Amino acid sequence: MKSRGRSADEIRRALLALKRIMLNYEVNEVKTIDVVMLLQHLELMGKYNLSFFDSLIASSALTVDGIVVSDDKSFNLVEGLKRIPVTAN
Q: In terms of pTM, does the model score above 0.70?
């Protein structure tokens, strides 16, 4: 969101809204950062030329269920990762 020009306050409000939605639908958060995930993140960053943060997201998603919800088409390159778009194109 920051790279799309959103302010810190806009990001904070969006995250709070997301947290409320997750609570309403009883969605559990999963913590994924560990040494193995960080090693995979570095591999994905190099192999697919992903940004630092995109490779963290991809590695985290692969650790959990292999699904990422994003409009960023660079995730389509990552083997084993399924991208679900946020917006209809």
A: yes
